Amino acid sequence: MNIFNLFLKDPLNSWGKKSKQKLYLDLSDFTLNNLKIGSNKNEIIKFGRPNNKKAYKKNYFEYYENGLIIETEKDKIIYFAVIIDKDEFSDKFSNADLYISNPGSDPIFVANGMIRSDLIKIINLELKGTDKDEIEIIDYIKKEDHIIEVESFANERVKRINIYKS
């Protein structure tokens, strides 16, 4: 770490207030509200100042009211997580208002309480694998170099969607 970095002003101080937003995941280009994996982390400003402290330095941005987590590395966005139904690790987050669209289709709302098989039908991409234990089920969907993980409770209710590049 460069000693001068300790004296730099936190860029988040100039970011506007956060507000509840609908989230739109477009599967044609894997954008979330027009942000792509690989976009510059300064583009996260559209969500406003994150809830967590030192997010910019930690490369980890939490938006409780949007049910959204964004991770960055080397100034690029590398990961989105969207909370559909809270668990013990995400209890401070609200459930996201997430809409998913495929090429040529209208956005479909992903409701709290949605069953994983229904969400997989909405995503409409090939399922590459599933991990299952007594606590959760994780379905892996891959398209080109993107991975979508659908995390569900053991009762098959969707709790979270993660998007990143392989």
> What structural class do helix, strand and pairing data support?
mainly beta
Taken from the alpha-carbon principal axes, the silhouette is globular
Unreliable stretches covering 5 or more consecutive residues: 1-6
Based on CA atoms alone, the radius of gyration comes out at: 16 Å
Proportion of strand residues:
35-45%
Question: Strands across the major sheet, in which order?
Answer: 4-5-6-12-11-10-9
Mind summarizing the main beta sheet? 7 strands, antiparallel
Report the total helices. Answer: 2
**What's the count of strands?**
12
Overview of this structure, please?
It is a single chain. The protein has 166 residues and is mainly beta. The protein has a domain at 16-124. Helix content is 7%, strand content 39%. It contains 2 helices and 12 strands, in the order E-E-E-H-E-E-E-E-E-H-E-E-E-E. It has helices spanning 55-58, 116-123; strands at residues 22-26, 31-32, 35-36, 60-63, 68-73, 76-83, 97-101, 108-110, 127-132, 136-143, 146-153, 158-165. Strands 4-5-6-12-11-10-9 form a 7-stranded antiparallel beta sheet. A hairpin with a 6-residue loop joins strand 7 (97-101) and strand 8 (108-110). The longest helix is centred in the last third of the chain and has 8 residues, at 116-123. It is globular, with a radius of gyration of 16 Å. The two termini are 28 Å apart. Mean pLDDT is 91; it is low at 1-6.
